[in-house]
Amino acid sequence: MLTTLALALVTWTCLLLIDQALPGRMGHAGAANPAGRLIAAARTLGLFLITAGAVGNASTGEHLGQDIANVAMSAGVAFVLFQLIVQAGLRLLASGRVTTALQNGNLAIATLVTGHIVATGILGGALCGSRTLGELGLSVTFVAIAQVSLHLLVWLFRRLTAYDDVDQALRGNIAAGVAHAGLQIALALLIARAADGPFVDWGTALGEYGLALAEGLLVYPLRQFLVPVLLLRQRPALFGGALDKAIGDDRDVGVGAMEAVTYVGAALLLRTLG
């Protein structure tokens, strides 16, 4: 136990130091505004998630030297994927406008980006724990599939809202940023669960992945019926409705937080039961 903990602390510290040394990285603890520090906090959490996955999945506790090599390989690959995916995802989210918004101290877009970073860390940590090169190749493939799935589900979600949540966040709507961050984290939890399990063959793996991934569609009834009726005491709607008005028009951060925690809570419940 103590050896594993020491390995985890050393791994996380190394990843953190490398991350802080990267030129032009987005977000740092010494940023001049809270938005930059919020991004730094998300990156730090992402590194914890990567470390937990690498140490938990790649080490056996039998041979320290082999465990160090396996953890270094898994954590290193996960770290590189984390950096690449975060940057690529930000370009997809707002066509390059995120950096300018963060430099201007836009806390709403920082909150939204935080969800993207944490979701990336969840997937990287869950899927990048390998003990052989063959397992590593499968891990990288599933991370790619998981990321495509995440962006597809987020895109489908954005068809449910009467407002553009990214555009709202760029305009300073923190409620939209909080709700979107919760959605991304919840979907990442479900996708990581869907991709988890022993690999038999590609047909079986992708079939089981698709069935489990269908749970992500639960965000629709949660958003349109459960949150408005049980939490807001409003009428449900197939599209738009009280939730869209509260977040898109009224910019109610409390409602955005209700929506976010409902997504994350439901995802954690499904992971526990499944």
Can you characterise this structure?
The chain has 274 residues and is an all-alpha fold. The chain has one domain (2-273). Helix content is 77%, strand content 0%. The protein has helices at residues 2-21, 34-58, 64-94, 97-103, 107-127, 133-158, 165-170, 174-195, 202-213, 219-231, 242-249, 253-273. α2 packs antiparallel against α3 and α2 (34-58) packs parallel to α5 (107-127). The longest helix is centred in the N-terminal third of the chain and has 31 residues, at 64-94. It is globular, with a radius of gyration of 19 Å. The chain starts with a helix and ends with a helix.
- Write down the oligomeric state: single chain
Biggest sheet record:
none
Globally, the shape reads: globular
Share of residues in strands: under 5%
Separation of termini? 27 Å
Secondary structure: number of strands: 0
What percent of residues adopt helix (DSSP H or I)? over 70%
- Runs with pLDDT <50, length 5+? none
Order of helices and strands: HHHHHHHHHHHH
Rounded average pLDDT: 81
Number of helices: 12
What class, by secondary structure content? mainly alpha
